[in-house]
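step=encode ok
step=design start
structure_in=
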């Protein structure tokens, strides 16, 4: 079942690419969604990274991402604590080479070496996911989309990739549990509009485009209500 869904997603991507390819010149495809390749060298860089050094570097990040990576200061700053190391590493690399645009983060990422990014990523992955946010309304719609998806719209369950508890997955699937809802909503809208386009195979752009704004809000609250209890 899960595999069929994923195959459908991949086939959809291929069809979209082929159809677009007929009408648009190849220059439209010049920019890859990400330069990160999960080869042995990259995996080893993360595997043997130094989380103590990462912790030291993370001090400069704490004013926005919080101590230990749980961002409590502002709702539009993402929490990094408990994220799979590959997910954090990939996002930093994408900021650095401008495949994910954001002024502040680009400034920080350009100062970091690949080794620094791996150290930071491993450090954050060793911290607990953010505490579950209380007082959120969890709707049936959000639970259904997260756990069952919607066959009519070819939507796989979010849990297929992000995990049953929103804990994320190896290599590069971010955790969503305990994430700040307003960051979640903003970033889903940027996938929907295509402003954020660093997701390999368009996976999140396709999914976000199929969701209404109301569903995105409800999913943000659902995932915020997960996290460390
Ligand atoms: C001045 C505030 C600020 C500082 C300091 C800062 N960040 Fe960020 N960071 C942000 C904001 C805002 C975003 C969301 C940007 C976006 O929408 O793409 C972000 C996004 C990220 C993301 C992507 C998270 C995700 O869930 O996709 C990572 C990883 C990250 N920052 C790591 C770092 C690291 C490592 C440092 C320190 C070297 C740092 N940041 C310093 C504000 C900051
Ligand atoms: C086919 C696998 C897959 C499915 C299904 C999926 N996602 Fe994702 N999602 C990803 C990947 C991979 C990324 C990271 C993209 C990148 O590399 O920038 C991501 C990123 C995200 C982000 C950004 C996280 C951050 O910290 O910036 C959000 C929010 C998100 N997904 C929500 C959802 C929701 C809600 C659903 C269900 C409606 C869903 N995803 C279904 C694979 C998936």
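sequence_out=
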């Amino acid at each position: 079942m899960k595999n069929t869904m994923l195959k459908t997603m991949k086939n959809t991507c291929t069809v979209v690419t082929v159809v677009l390819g007929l009408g648009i010149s190849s220059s439209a495809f010049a920019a890859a969604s990400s330069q990160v390749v999960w080869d042995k060298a990259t995996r080893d860089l993360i595997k043997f990274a130094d989380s103590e050094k990462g912790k030291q570097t993370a001090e400069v990040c704490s004013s926005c991402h919080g101590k230990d990576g749980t961002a409590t200061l502002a709702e539009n700053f993402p929490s990094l604590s408990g994220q799979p190391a590959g997910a954090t590493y990939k996002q930093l690399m994408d900021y650095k080479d401008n495949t994910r645009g954001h002024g502040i983060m680009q400034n920080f990422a350009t100062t970091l070496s690949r080794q620094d990014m791996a150290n930071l990523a491993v450090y954050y992955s060793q911290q607990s996911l953010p505490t579950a946010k209380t007082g959120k309304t969890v709707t049936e719609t959000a639970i259904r989309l997260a756990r069952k998806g919607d066959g009519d719209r070819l939507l796989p369950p979010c849990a297929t990739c992000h995990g049953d508890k929103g804990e994320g997955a190896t290599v590069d699937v971010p955790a969503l549990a305990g994430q700040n809802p307003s960051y979640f909503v903003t970033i889903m809208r940027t996938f929907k509009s295509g402003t954020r386009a660093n997701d390999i195979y368009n996976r999140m752009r396709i999914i976000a485009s199929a969701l209404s704004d109301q569903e995105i809000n409800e999913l943000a609250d659902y995932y915020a209500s997960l996290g460390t209890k």
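step=design ok
step=annotate ok -> Confidence is low (pLDDT under 50) at residues 1-30.
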